[in-house]
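Hi U.,

Before I forget, here's the chain from the pilot set. I'm dumping it here mostly so it's searchable later in email.
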Amino acid sequence: MSEECLAVIEINQDLCSRCYVCQSVCPYDAIKRDENGKVEIDIKECQVCGICYSACPVSAIKMKYYTYDELTDYVKKEKKKSPQTDALVLMCRGNSPSTGEIKDILKEQGLEVNDYISLRLPCAGRVPTDFVFEALNSGIKNVVSIQCEDDFCRYKEGTKVNTRRLILARNVLKQLGYGDDALKVIKFSRKVIYDVLECVGCGKCVFICPYDALEFEPFATPKVIEDKCVGCGACQLVCPHHAIQVKGFEFETVLKRYCEKAKQLKESGKGPSILAFICQWSEFSTLDNPQKVLEGKNVIALEVPCFKSLDPVHVVNALSCGFDGVMAVMCSSKDCKLQEGRDTAERNLNVTLDVLKKNGLLERFEFYEESPRCEGEFQQKMGVFQQKILNLQKNDKPMEANAKRTK
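Structure:
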């Protein structure tokens, strides 16, 4: 494992008080203590959820992503841009809804909020309680945490951990004179939705669902069992009529996004245009801060809820729309947050490779496994892939010239 991976999270032994709070809250048993009581992190087991970081009472754990200072600075900058903004919405990565959905969710909870600062996080459990107090101190009147439902937390215990913290924080705020709406917790998990008019009752979605979240109904649209659906998108992939889809990742919506961008990138003339499909759990910086990571590059990053939901049609169609290359970034089998049905993702990848090979496009597609533990790996891999596509384009020019002379 590279030095970058090893440096993503570490413990400052000089600050560590050996309280072992971090070890007690780690959902992956990645924090160990040796025979002398020294606390260490097993980076190979760590999932970079940040729960230990937010729980450490002496700030002995250091992380590369979403530190306390980064979170507070972000809120201050956004607040400065829009002084009238009085609400902060914290969203778990697995359920972060679109702008329109946020307002609908808040309205259902009795909160009428027009202007708000949205902050996306890998897990609600990584939010330090002090950060909530600091946000309110900066002029924010309402802090809303939209968390995954307890049974659907991608980091096992993150939602439960943060809920307990925020309950304690709310009690403190009441004593300080804050109202009940100053801090609110909302449970929300992304599910699939049906277009009953498009469904033909073929039952493919029921067959493929790895979580038994769909139930066949004779002469009717299959029933979605909300308590089991995790929004992985496997059912969406096999539906021949796009009748069942993960909200926010609908086929036509995704198609429109990258086809429009392909034309813009071509017109910019800044080198090969690349489309990157990224599993939302494999890479943090590129998805949450694309302007910084992709600045100056002719690259567009689109996230997928799970690699199981990446339709091979999108890869082929992206190349047809004008992209010079397509990259897919996925979690390793060990890091996968939705383990059930991973064989579906692997079969899906084999189909993609086969189709590309038959169409002579295999060299323009690349996939690799990545973890947030390895900071900067995406930029490195993307740089190599861009050079590969650039070389292909250079080799294609003489062939195009010969073809014209032949005509």
